[in-house]
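Minutes, project check-in

Agenda point 3 was the complex the collaborators sent over. CS summarized: two entities, 593 residues total, and the question is how they sit relative to each other. Sequences were read into the notes so everyone works from the same version.
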Amino acid sequence: MRLDLALVKQWVRPDTRVLDLGCGDGELLAHLRDTLNVRGYGLEIDPDKLTIAIGRGVNVIEQDLNKGLSNFSDESFDTLLMAQALQAVQRPDELLDDMVRVAREVIVTFPNFGHWKTRWYLIRNGRMPVSRALPYGWYDTPNIHLCTFRDFEAMCRDKGLHVLDRLAVDQDQQDSVLSRWFPNLFGEIGIFRVTRGGAA
Amino acid sequence: MSDAASFAYPADSVGLATPQTVHFDTPLTLASGRVLKAYDIVYETYGTLNAERSNAVLICHALSGHHHAAGFHAGEDPAKAKPGWWDAAIGPGKVIDTDHFFVVAMNNLGGCHGSTGPASINPDTGVPFGPDFPLVAVRDWVKVQAQVSDYLGIQCWAAVVGGSLGGMQVLRWSIDQPDRIANAVIIASAPKLSAQNIAFNEVARQAIRRDPDFHGGHYYARGVVPEVGLSLARMVGHITYLSDDAMHQKFGRDLRAKTYQYGFDAEFQVESYLRYQGEAFSKRFDANTYLLMTRVLDYFDPARDYDHDLAKTFAKAKCRFLVLSFSTDWRFAPERSREIVDALVEAGKCVSYAEIDAPQGHDSFLLDNPRYLAVFGAYMRRVAEEQEACHAS
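CS then shared the predicted structure for the full assembly.
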């Protein structure tokens, strides 16, 4: 299981309802179902991944996240998960509004563009960074809205969202001392747990 | 008989299919309030029912379908004859794998392939029912299918599967027989017809009813059939089954002759194709049944009983759902399937949905599109593995 998925799991409570945006082959949903009796749906548009997810017996719905979540009613889920997909949608800000509307808690993970290696790559080469976390060229990357750990924090602040937890991890280690103290510089993947502000 | 000679059937074919008939003489009160005193249902089965009776799959047919869903009838040479209408999906190793599942396909009440319908003899009069055959509804079909289930000793269907009008029966099963269905597979269907759908049906009906050979539906005694009307009806229907793209690919503006003939004969290939399809259909299908089937489609609207709230309609459903649609289907477009999916999500039911990219329009559900069969197959394999019993209350 991918590391960020394992980390996400510690925030999902048993017997709850989950919506997984960009659920891929349904690995996480199947795992949550089998270990925590979590029920819910995954949204995916990749045909092959969707077929695998259906074979796992999870509920997966073919849906383009760029068209929003208007088909889901307010607070119809306990938790909404979105692993490494927010940066690939056309309007992450609008989707985030929709996400905190349909679920009480939103857990979102994204590649941190502020990581020191990314910065160093750009400084040293003068070219768009390519790494394990960001393996694409600038022209064919699905990641059209990359942001830094701090950018995401700022957006949450602007939207008045409560950040319940934030974590920065490496691709293969858990959170290190450095990434804990300087997440924007040493975290390769940002993980946020947020809720709608106000009457939370 | 000499043609009992065994043919070599393809390895993935169910092979020889033998229709069977079950007779019911308990009066059936229909949704319309009318009563049918007795009736026959013809059906075929493929595969073997297991000891637990937990591997049964029911196939529901669409407008012009019937009980012969797979394989070949006695005397049919598999090298020459066309197999049952859903042979692409039913057979050993196929999506609905008859090595695992026991598959049942029936001809619905009102049909013209052996089940009691307008062409059957009315016991009260001794002549065919014709237009006096009562109009039925999808819920009547489901009721009858449940009776056949009892007869076959099947308490719970591992899956009920259907495309188009067949999908509507599946939907009805999920809400009318929640304890007897574990999985519902609804393909290229809709929760109700649109005004446009009904309009096309009405053109088809008018074509039949205005044919001079229709005689108000009493054409059997006169030894004629409203062939012209029925073939026109089929031509209209056929256009709605295909996508613009598929027609373009298949015919374009191709002419049968080298150049224009300046007349009204079938000059374009698409014209001659439609005429051929219409004529062939009018020879094998009953006009009164066609009228009845289109009306069943028009009337289908299960949410009508639940304040037109489809989510509320599904409240009692207990099964898992797979909903599939096709990108170029404009008869029952993907949005119509989405209505079903959204309502199921709102009702908190288990549902998966895929929109298959396919160029062939509504007809896609009968064809062997690789992605379609991959998704459908993945789901059915899961059904086979889980073999979960119905969630009896």
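Noted in discussion: The two ends of chain B are 51 Å apart (CA to CA).
Follow-up: revisit at the next meeting once the mutant set is ready.
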